[in-house]
Specification:
GO terms for molecular function: DNA binding. By secondary structure, the protein is mostly helical. The chain contains 10 helices and 3 strands.
């Protein structure tokens, strides 16, 4: 008769999810102003990453024809999961892109690499971000993806509906977008605690007793 093997239960430990690093609006402004030259190429590319919440690969693969100034949209082809979507194009970002286009006259790829038949690579864009971050004196452990995180958080702090942010970011699940509520500090500061309502009721009760 064979001996019974001891029963073992497998336990899966969930890796704790870290909150995303977020830059303040002032830090983003300093970083974009410090974007390396020559010209506006990297400043424009990093500005799209923040101003439209695009991923590095999405910025790199933009074509000139993806900028729809008539409808104020950016067409993102084959984003994460191979899905197309529309991203927002603000007037200020459009002005910067027009200045960049007048300067560089790109054809085909909006941000061409070397040779120009190829787009710039996410590695090149990451290097530009790191250089700008150091020039701006930002000590936070921020990466290029931090600009996308900051875009979402700043929208949330401006009271934009989380479902609208979900669409803009191209998230399949609302729960993915909802994590930005944990880092939206302005939203936390501006939310009135139910304790304040309790205090108002206590004050009202006290006044009634004194009357």
């Amino acid at each position: 008769m064979s001996a019974k093997l001891p029963h073992r239960t497998l336990t899966f430990q969930r890796k704790p999810q870290k909150l995303p690093v977020v830059l303040s609006v002032e830090e983003v402004a300093d970083l974009l102003a410090a974007a390396p030259g020559p010209g506006l190429k990297y400043r424009a590319a990093l500005s799209i990453s923040y101003g439209a919440g695009l991923r590095a690969s999405e910025v790199c693969h933009l074509k000139v024809t993806d900028i729809d100034s008539e409808r104020m949209l950016i067409h993102v082809e084959e984003g994460k999961g191979g899905k197309d979507r529309k991203a927002m194009l603000s007037p200020g970002l459009l002005d910067l892109l027009r200045d960049y286009w007048r300067e560089a006259r790109p054809r085909g790829w909006l941000f061409p690499g070397k040779p120009k038949i190829n787009p710039i690579s996410p590695r090149q864009l990451n290097r530009a971000f790191t250089a700008a971050k150091h020039m701006a004196g930002i000590a936070k452990p921020a990466t290029l993806h931090t600009l996308r995180h900051s875009f979402a958080t700043h929208l949330l702090e401006a009271n934009t509906d989380v479902r609208v942010i979900q669409v803009l970011l191209g998230h399949a699940k609302l729960s993915t977008t909802a994590r930005y509520t944990h880092v939206a500090t302005k939203l936390i500061r501006d939310t009135i605690s139910p304790f304040e309502r309790l205090k108002q009721l206590e004050d009202l009760t006290l006044r009634r007793r004194l009357e």
